[in-house]
């Protein structure tokens, strides 16, 4: 619990600092790359907050994966489904952003 809270605070502070730096600097050579960095920072903050709110866990079985949240284990099925969807969407959004990063750097 303490490690999750520390890493979430550290992630939020460092990414907020990056957002601040991107907002106040006017480096012309950064150009549109600024928006890609901004989206990385925002998604990283969101996934850190959702992660600490859920404390997700995954168990691999012969037929697939079982995913649950330790914080909402006693909640309703609807809460579990929606929180799981939000976490998975944010988790995989990082891979989409990395793909955009590689394309941007290539071009």
From TrEMBL:
UniProt keyword list: Membrane, Transmembrane, Transmembrane helix
Transmembrane portions of the chain: 6-23, 35-60, 80-104
Annotated Pfam families: 7TM_GPCR_Str
Protein's recorded name: G protein-coupled receptor
């Amino acid at each position: 619990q303490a490690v999750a809270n520390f890493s979430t605070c550290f992630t939020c502070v460092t990414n907020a600092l990056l957002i601040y730096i991107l907002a106040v600097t006017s480096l012309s050579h950064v150009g549109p790359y600024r928006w890609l960095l901004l989206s990385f920072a925002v998604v990283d903050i969101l996934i850190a907050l959702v992660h600490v709110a859920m404390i997700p866990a995954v168990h691999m079985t012969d037929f697939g994966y079982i995913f649950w949240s330790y914080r909402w284990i006693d909640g309703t099925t609807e809460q579990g489904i929606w929180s799981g969807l939000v976490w998975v969407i944010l988790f995989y959004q990082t891979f989409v952003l990395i793909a955009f990063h590689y394309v941007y750097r290539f071009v």
